[in-house]
Specification:
globular; SsuA/THI5; D-Maltodextrin-Binding Protein, domain 2; alpha/beta; single chain; 15 helices; NitT/TauT family transport system substrate-binding protein; 5-stranded mixed sheet
Length: 333
């Protein structure tokens, strides 16, 4: 009986070992692994979107997951769009509205991973008495793009929260964001939209403060948290190379973890963006607060709801009647 009991224990151990080996093999087979090819990603070097790709390259997370990430800078959205349309690049980082417009116009890109939720803000002089959108009436306000999301969500928020037509009630001055910063410093603007990569230097100077963030405006309107910037891939490429799509998402998630925990890596980003130590502290805190690692099933619904809110006040500017189907996918997560 003792011998029989011993044999059963041995057999059970062999089964357990085989099961463990099988599980390990299964995990190895399902681990995100690319095909060794190059994935070209278009980013704007002036902003925040280059941070995660830089971390992927620094720590060779692309090689770890079996592909080569090539970072290509674009000067404006038109040049990035042209690269995607000509298949000179496989991926691009755009905000969700620009991505949706691109997909709706017949260029099938699909979001495979989020990056940041709403990160930009409205900046005013530190001693300004402006505290809400309603206070902007009759004031000179700088905007980066009249067709961009930040401006149209400000209009939607002003209408919903203050019953105010912001486009009519303020003096809008449109220009490149560095120019808007210069106009603020000259005293030619009362308030301005500001990118999150430039706002920290202004805040750290002590001469300016944040009147409101774009994220706060969406929250005040009751809109859900959604990705503002996201990593989008040509849909044909993703379908033909699903391993590379999954490998990129895996590499990005690891990069996001590094950004959340590693302090040293931020010094390099601060140097690239020419941020002082004081402004880098602002910048790091904000990015960590707004970083997203994964799409959730309800984000597509949230984007549709947000599109409805901005179309209610600026449909002619938004130029997108409805959300194109399949803008985001959870397939590669």
């Amino acid at each position: 009986m003792q011998r029989l009991h011993a044999l059963k224990l041995i057999a059970g151990g062999l089964v357990a070992a085989a099961t463990a080996l099988g599980t390990g093999a299964s995990l190895a087979q399902t681990r995100a692994t690319g095909d060794g090819g190059t994935v070209r990603i278009m980013i704007s070097p002036a902003g925040t979107m280059g941070i995660a790709p830089a971390v992927i390259k620094k720590y060779e997370l692309d090689k770890k997951h079996g592909f080569n990430l090539e970072v290509v800078s674009y000067s404006d959205q038109k040049s990035a769009t042209a690269a995607i349309q000509s298949r000179s690049a496989e991926m691009v980082v755009f905000d969700w509205l620009a991505t949706a417009r691109l997909r709706a116009s017949g260029t099938p890109v699909v979001g495979i991973a989020p990056f940041l939720t709403y990160v930009n803000s409205v900046i005013v002089p530190r001693d300004s008495k402006l505290n809400t959108l309603a206070d902007l009436k009759g004031k000179r306000v700088g905007v980066a793009h009249k067709t961009g999301f930040d401006w149209v969500i400000m209009q939607a928020a002003a209408e919903k929260l203050n019953k105010m037509d912001l486009g009519r009630d303020v003096e809008v001055r449109e220009g490149a964001v560095p120019l808007l910063r210069g106009l603020m410093e000259k005293g030619d603007l009362d308030a301005t939209q500001m990118w999150n990569s430039l706002a920290p230097e202004m805040l750290a100077s002590g001469k300016y403060r944040t009147m409101v963030t774009i994220r706060e405006l969406t929250q005040q309107m009751g809109l859900p948290t959604v990705p503002f910037l996201m990593f989008s891939m040509r849909e044909d490429y993703a379908k033909q190379n699903p391993g590379n799509a999954r490998a990129f998402v895996a590499a990005y998630r690891e990069a996001a973890d590094i950004l959340m925990k590693n302090e040293e890596v931020w010094l390099e980003h601060g140097a690239r963006l020419k941020l002082s130590p004081e402004s880098l502290a602002f910048f790091k805190e904000q990015v960590r607060r707004d970083l997203l690692k994964s799409f959730t099933p309800d984000m597509s619904k949230g984007l549709t709801e947000t599109l409805g809110a901005i179309n209610a006040v600026a449909a002619d500017v938004v130029g997108l009647g409805q959300m194109p189907a399949g803008l985001l996918t959870l397939e590669y997560q």
